[in-house]
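FAQ

Q: What does a record look like?
A: Structure on top, sequence underneath. For example:
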């Protein structure tokens, strides 16, 4: 079944997101490739990922509170404008010969802060554009666009642009973010919530944290994602040193490195279309368990081989399973969370899920410096394997009950609203 059309507003958001993620994909490959021209220290390279992901640890909760207080589309526009401006400044400095590893650090932090606002608002705005019954399909199509551009097209393009010129590699994402802003301006409508602004930001954040703390299912999923993101952040923080250059284990060129990363992206795109069949045929719990096995291949395979074909195949399978996990769990989160709390829930969830990324990057730098890069792959593979334990709590029955409870709460809220409206009408 194809379902009813998702609407023009959705497809404009889809196009804007594709452009924005293409910019991300180019930039996230360009940054480490440029960084290894300034230093070959594993700790300093790891520090760049730490700087870029640190805002998810320290700024995510505030981003969620803002997403529930203000129009989410406007916040996305502001965030992309900020990202384009920060990277434009870095481009000018680099072309002028003033680039340093520390300037890359500063740009990473600033762009990372803007990313927390954009991603939290983007994930929260979707239920306002499509109905709950269309969320799996809408998320799948959106992820297909994001992954194709961010991981399939962006990495090889970033590697090619760095080889041509650093200024071009940094300038291209600026233009892409500007184009994304233009498309997002075409999305019409009001995308704020009915959340009252009489409370403080601190109280709003606390309400979102209480909701996550009180929901065992979502809390378990957040911790599991946090474990995987810790591991994947650690692996890919040092993987560039393992893969690129004449003295590396794999001896890939800059463009070759970008091409290798597209194996994961290709699998991720395929996974977005397999998520609904996997959910239907296996059930959500079994499908999610299968994704953990695929993730293990992604983080552990470089420990056992330097063959880019074998590693690429492992990345491909891992990409499929990561997409299946994302579509199933994000759609679940959007269905069971009240709309006025979705921004704060998303940010609290990502504090656990994404806040581990800078910690993983820092751990990778220490492990690689002391024991060598392969030790990072082995230790992180062990961590991912332990995530299977969480599936004892994430069952089909618990997910179905959480959705049913959300439906009952929505029905009660709508009934209360209708009763209040009738009472106000009679009084008038």
């Amino acid at each position: 079944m194809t379902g009813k059309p998702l609407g023009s507003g959705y497809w404009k958001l889809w196009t804007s997101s594709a452009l924005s993620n293409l910019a991300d994909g180019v930039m996230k490959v360009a940054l480490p490739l440029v960084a290894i021209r300034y230093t070959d220290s594993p700790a300093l390279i790891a520090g760049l990922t730490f700087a870029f992901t640190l805002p998810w640890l320290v700024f995510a909760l505030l981003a969620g509170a803002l997403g529930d207080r203000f129009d989410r589309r406007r916040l996305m526009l502001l965030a992309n404008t900020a990202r384009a401006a920060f990277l434009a400044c870095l481009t000018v400095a680099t072309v002028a010969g003033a680039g340093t590893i520390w300037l890359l650090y500063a740009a990473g932090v600033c762009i990372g802060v803007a990313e927390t606002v954009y991603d939290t608002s983007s994930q929260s705005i979707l239920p306002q554009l499509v109905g709950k019954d269309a969320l799996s399909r809408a998320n799948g199509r959106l992820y297909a666009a994001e992954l194709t551009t961010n991981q399939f097209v962006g990495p090889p393009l970033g590697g090619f642009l760095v080889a041509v010129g650093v200024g071009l590699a940094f300038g291209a994402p600026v233009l892409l973010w500007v184009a994304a802003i233009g498309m997002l301006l075409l999305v019409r409508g009001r995308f704020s919530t009915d959340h009252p602004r009489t409370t403080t930001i601190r109280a709003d954040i606390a309400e979102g944290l209480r909701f996550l703390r009180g929901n065992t299912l979502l809390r378990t999923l957040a911790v599991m994602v946090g474990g995987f993101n810790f591991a994947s952040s650690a692996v890919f923080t040092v993987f560039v040193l393992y893969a690129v250059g004449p003295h590396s284990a794999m001896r890939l060129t800059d463009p070759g490195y970008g091409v290798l990363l597209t194996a994961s992206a290709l699998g991720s795109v395929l996974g977005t279309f397999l998520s609904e069949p996997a959910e239907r045929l296996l059930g959500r719990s079994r499908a999610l368990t299968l994704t953990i096995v695929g993730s293990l291949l992604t983080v552990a395979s470089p420990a056992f081989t330097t063959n880019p074909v074998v590693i690429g195949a492992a990345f491909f399978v891992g990409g499929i399973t990561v997409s299946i996990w994302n579509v199933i769990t994000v759609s679940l989160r959007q269905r069971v969370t009240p709309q006025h709390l979705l921004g704060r829930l998303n940010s609290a969830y990502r504090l656990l899920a994404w806040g581990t990324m800078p910690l993983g990057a820092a751990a990778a730098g220490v492990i690689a410096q002391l024991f060598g890069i392969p030790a990072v792959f082995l230790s992180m593979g062990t961590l991912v394997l332990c995530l299977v334990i969480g599936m004892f709590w994430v069952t089909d029955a618990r997910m179905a009950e959480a959705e049913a409870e959300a439906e009952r709460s929505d029905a009660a809220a709508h009934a209360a609203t209708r009763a209040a409206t009738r009472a106000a009408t009679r009084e008038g």
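Q: Is there anything notable about this one?
A: The mean pLDDT is 84.
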